[in-house]
Amino acid sequence: MAIALLLTALFVCISSLVLRALNQLWFKPRRIRSVLYKQGIRGPRPSFPFGNIPEMQKMQFSIKIPSDAQQHVHHNWVPSIFPYLHKWEKKYGPIYMYSTGSKQHLYVSDPNLLRGIKQHNTLDLGKPTYLGKPLQPLLGDGIIRSNGQHWANQKKIIAPEFFLNKVMGMVSLMLESTMKIMKEWESRIQEVGEDSNVLDMSIDKDLKTLSRDIISRACLSSSYAQGNQIFEKISLMQEALSKPSLLFGFLNFRFLPFNNDKKIWNLRREVDSMLLEIVRHRQSGGGVHNAQKDLLQVLLESAAAANNGKHTPKTERFVLDNCRTIYFVGSETTSLTASWTLMLLSLHPEWQERLRAEIIGICGDHDRHELHRCLQDMDTLSKLKMLTMVIQESLRLYAPAVLTPRQALANMKLGDLDVPQDMIIWIATASLHRDPKNWGPDANEFKPERFANGVTEACKFPNAYLPFGFGSRLCIGQTFAMMELKIVLSLLLSKFSFSLSPNYHHSPVLKMVLVPEHGINLLVRRV
């Protein structure tokens, strides 16, 4: 009798697990897809249990780099990074669905549907939850990864620290950090000798160092030197997390820790240990001594206030998660945009000359100290119209974020489309930025003049230009980033000219953000 009861219980338990697995892998995905299918949305047919993953992997691994890739620089790199998305868009149109295992995805490169998505500003449209676990070591539960009220509370704390009035107070340190890099470059060019007076260098490395120094001083009142190890370990985490399986969702099928997972979590512990030293030094009274609080101080005070003035493990997690986020996003995205911009200007020396003429016309042909004083004035920065056009065009062609993900956390109406709960939406930023129906037949060409009258006049559907995201989750650091780009590029272009190095190999790849696989090698000369 006892054995019979035990066997019955075991059968019920196994049956329950099987039914649960079938619901997760078969019935629920079919229900989600049927909602969109009835509305005319199509896509590649998924196979059980991996969906379209085998097809995606086959297309990705079959990509061949052209033999002239080193000499020929083209700006339509989307088919080489996302061959499956590109092929399916050509077959099914700008809106289609596909599957990665139990996850159902909606691809969107249609400006009209995008408008409906942008108008939906409730907390029910958030970041994909399935990406949360693999990105946890890097971003934790910080503002980039969180959803719902937890995200809203963090935005309320952090966003004001990047308002224009606060960013204006950071201009001086942006100038100081850039001047330091300029002196290094001048010294290295001098070491080369007067005969050549040209330096062949990988500028993206130096610009990353510069951006790291700026974000450290602006937000954490520390220098790049102090946070150097933190930055390097975060870069290693980024590299380890930059696997195709992250977007495929294949990590959902893994239950045991692999070597790469252990490496990532060890790096996370090392980063947090170093950040804790900075945090506890600040808690003990060290660090900021001026009237304006930095972001770290604001995070500490907000976390303590939420816990009745106590510093608990929960408050430490909140601070550490957002410090890691700021270190990664604040330094990586801006340095990449500056690097891609200088690469584009190397291909178009006529635009370099125009920008120098604009800077001289506004600030005069003075030494760098006079230029420093000139660029401290906000009115001066707002007059750099052509520089703004160049940055906007660079962000159109090489925005760090090539896909913008969202997840329907509840059933919702987006434009004319009924979207079921748990559908993952991928807004194809890079494709939207290259749509000839929106930008014209020269959509894959570098033409800053298209932004001469602003974004609203640059294309047919201005809402489809979203280098900083959109809606309530628009990048909170947009003002900071644009200010930094204007200052860095103004100073560098005023004293140096750039041309493409013979060692440059054009190969944009996705490593969470769009990066140059082989660096950006340019020839740098003193003007």
From TrEMBL:
Keywords: Heme, Iron, Membrane, Metal-binding, Monooxygenase, Oxidoreductase, Transmembrane, Transmembrane helix. It comes from the Eukaryota. The keyword Transferase does not apply. Its main location: membrane. GO terms for cellular component: membrane. This is Putative cytochrome P450. InterPro entries: Cyt_P450, Cyt_P450_CS, Cyt_P450_E_grp-I, Cyt_P450_sf, Cytochrome_P450_Monooxygen. Gene3D superfamilies: Cytochrome P450 (1.10.630.10). The lineage of its organism: Eukaryota, Viridiplantae, Streptophyta, Embryophyta, Tracheophyta. Transmembrane segments: none annotated. It is found in: Membrane. The keyword Oxidoreductase applies. Its cofactor is heme. Heme binds at C475. Belongs to the cytochrome P450 family. GO terms for molecular function: heme binding; iron ion binding; monooxygenase activity; oxidoreductase activity, acting on paired donors, with incorporation or reduction of molecular oxygen. It comes from Rosa chinensis (China rose).
